[in-house]
Amino acid sequence: MNEILWLLLIFGIKAIIIISFVMLCAAAFVYLERKISAVIQNRIGPNRVGPFGLLQPFADVLKLFLKEDIVPKNANRFYHSLAPIITLGVAFSVFAIIPFASYLKIGDRVIHMGIAPNINIGFLFVLAMTSVGVYGITLAGWSSNNKYSLLGGLRSAAQMISYELAMGLAVISILLMSQDLTLTGIVEAQKGLKWNIFLQPLAFIIFLTSSFAETNRSPFDLPEAEPELVGGYNTEYSGMKFGMFFLAEYANMAAASAIISLLFLGGWNFPFIYEWLGFANGSVELVLVQLLVFLAKMLFMVFFFIWTRWSIPRFRYDQLMNLGWKILLPLGLLNILVTGIILMYI
Amino acid sequence: MNLVDIVFYFFAVIIVASAAVVVLSKNIMYSAFSLLFTFFGVAGIYVLLNADFIAVTQLMIYIGGILVLIIFGVMLTTKITGLEMKTGITGKAQYAIGGLSTLVLGGTLIYVFNSTSWFKSPSVPTTSTVEAIGASLLTNYLLPFEAASVLLLLAMIGAALIARRK
Question: Of A131, A140, A241, B109, which is the most exposed, with the fewest CB atoms less than 10 Å away?
Answer without folding.
Answer: B109
